[in-house]
Design goal:
The protein folds into two domains: 2-52 and 328-338 and 356-372, Urease, subunit C, domain 1, CATH 2.30.40.10; 54-317, Metal-dependent hydrolases (TIM Barrel, Alpha-Beta Barrel). The radius of gyration is 20 Å and the shape is globular. 23% of the residues lie in helices and 28% in strands. It is an alpha/beta fold. Strands 1, 2, 3, 4, 5, 13, 14 and 15 form an eight-stranded mixed beta sheet that branches. The protein contains ten helices and 15 strands. The two termini are 28 Å apart. Bound molecules: zinc ion (ZN).
């Protein structure tokens, strides 16, 4: 007997090229079947709604209570449809243990972390206090980073490094070079954040290796990936050609509609859509992953592609093909999404507004093969 059946939804699973109105059943924490006329103990009619693999947000900050920028993953899962949160380096070697013990292990939703190269992680990020964790090189100890990454090798996806005028200040590109050394020593990828120069995108792009992630990839000028004349910059094209992963990481200051329109017009889709949700961006303009995905939908990217960039592609970026899929026998995780029409005001990180005609809302998630009500 199936535990749960979602009936008559539009099941879209880009990992298997699936897009049709049918039923999906869950049993023993797994996807049990996809097809018409399924039955089970908990039957839910999701007519008119979309059933997607559980959404993966590749860039979040969910070390709630342990870092000032953290938000609560469980709350965001209940309201925003995300079942896997990738924490983009909130914790560093000095406070990673607390993240694991007090947040990750008790969490009912999956949290997978990048380890920040800086010892205290992102320690001073709030509305009133903002100090870049890489501005002081005394906070970077590569041996400590290697030790902690190895001790928590079952969890740590890679090394996070933030460089730019606000994140690394006078340290410039140095923290990135150390992060690359640590990553190489541990056999891990890095996720790099670049804000305003210095360093420049040349410095950063030239260093990224295949499988490394550039987050905030569609940021507005300066350090934007596209020129004013609409041409994608050579170093961006070269990085994509060698397998660097481009992640949106919307956040508070890192996403521009102008950049996005130009990149899409040039045929350059991001590899992954993520929110960079944290204590500031959760109040806008990012809000959450589904809002960020809605912006791409309104900018002309079709729904199956938008879903792919927040499920299968995000899973591929972290080398977890068991996530972001509804394959029968796989993890029983799904997001039920409602697409509504109307006139919706969206804003980017530099205050440009756009009226969009579509909006994606969470109508609940399936976790461990069971239904979770949105609050
Ligand atoms: Zn971030």
């Amino acid at each position: 007997m199936n535990d749960l059946v979602l009936k008559n939804g539009r099941v879209i699973d880009p990992s298997q090229g699936l897009d049709r109105v049918t039923d999906i059943a869950f049993a023993d924490g797994k996807v049990a079947a996809i097809g018409d006329g399924l039955s089970g103990t908990d039957m839910r009619d999701v007519s008119g709604k979309i059933v997607s693999p559980g959404l993966i947000d590749l860039h979040t900050h969910v070390y709630w209570g342990g870092t000032s920028l953290g938000v609560e993953a469980e709350l965001l899962a209940r309201t925003g449809g995300v079942t896997t949160f990738i924490d983009a380096g909130s914790a560093g070697p000095g406070n990673f243990h607390g993240f694991r013990r007090h947040v990750i292990e008790p969490s009912p939703v999956r949290i997978l972390p990048y380890l920040n190269i800086s010892f205290p992680g992102i320690f001073a990020f709030s509305k009133t206090v903002m100090v870049g964790e890489n501005a002081d090189m005394r906070l970077i100890d590569p041996r400590e980073a290697v030790r902690v990454a190895r001790e928590h090798a079952d969890l740590v996806l890679g090394i996070k490094v933030r460089v730019g005028k606000s994140a690394s200040g006078d340290s410039g590109i140095m923290p990135m070079d150390i992060a690359l050394d640590v990553a190489e020593e541990c056999g891990l990828p890095i996720m790099a954040h670049l804000d305003a120069p210095p360093p420049s995108r040349h410095d950063v792009m030239g260093r990224l290796r295949p499988g490394d992630i550039l987050t905030h990839c569609f940021r507005p000028f300066p350090n934007a990936p596209v020129r004013a004349d609409g041409k994608v910059r050579d170093e961006i094209l070269a990085a994509r050609a060698r397998g660097v992963i481009f992640d949106i990481g919307h956040g508070g200051g890192s996403f521009g509609f102008g950049t996005t329109r130009a990149m899409l017009a040039a045929g350059f889709l991001p590899d992954v859509i993520s929110s960079d949700v944290h204590v500031i961006s959760i109040e806008g303009p990012a809000f959450d992953l589904l809002t960020t995905m809605s912006k791409f939908l309104c900018l002309g990217v079709d729904l199956p592609t938008v879903l792919k960039l927040a499920t299968a592609n995000a899973a591929a970026a972290i080398k977890r093909p068991d996530l972001g899929t509804l394959k029968v026998g796989g993890l029983g995780e799904a997001t039920v999404i409602e697409q509504v029409s109307g006139n919706f005001d969206y804003a980017d990180s530099i205050g440009e507004h756009m009226v969009g005609d579509k909006r994606l809302l969470s109508a609940g998630v399936v976790l461990g093969g069971k239904w979770w009500h949105p609050t």
